[in-house]
């Protein structure tokens, strides 16, 4: 799972979504306290349609707090990507539990609240003079490492058959015009057909 907090450059946000889809990360939690999250279709190339996007954008509340509460209640460890706290490297991050990787805005990084309420802080080792990677590069590097280790260390990392079917139905709804209306009509027709047989 990935959390994106207040990303303001649409091409960066869109590139992260494309990486999530490419590496098999289904859920992306989008926090919009200050910046509205927009998608650049030319960058995502439609990959955003295959992801499950959760948006936290209520007015006058700390949307980061709402997001973290939800994920922690579901058993996730929150891993903040940051340069400003004591950290472990991404390679040291355990994949033996559910992890939500959290990325912040391009200029300021994660909010103070996000940093203080994460369970662990992680960094990507660097050797040059640059202080950080672009957010889309950071996300891709982190996802590559975590997903590689997850596949090697765990046999049950994939979705269950029920989860796959639920997603497939959701994708079908999204891929056709008026998908939900067609689905309702389909089930109504089946119900009517069953009643007519009686």
Tell me about this structure:
The chain is of the alpha/beta class and 198 residues long. The protein has two domains: 2-153, Alpha/beta knot, CATH 3.40.1280; 161-197. It is built from seven helices and seven strands. It has a seven-stranded parallel sheet with strand order 3-2-1-6-4-7-5, with helices on both faces. Helix 2 links the parallel strand 2 and strand 3. It is elongated. The protein starts with a strand and ends with a helix.
Summarize the structure.
The chain contains 7 helices and 7 strands; from the N terminus they run βαβαβαβββαβααα.
- Counted by DSSP, the helix tally is 7
Fraction of residues in β-strands: 15-25%
Total domain modules: 2
Percentage of residues in helical conformation: 40-55%
User: Kindly, what is the distance between the CA atoms of the first and last residues, rounded to a whole number of angstroms?
Assistant: 48 Å
Query: Which outline best applies?
Result: elongated
Give the helices and strands as they follow along the chain: EHEHEHEEEHEHHH
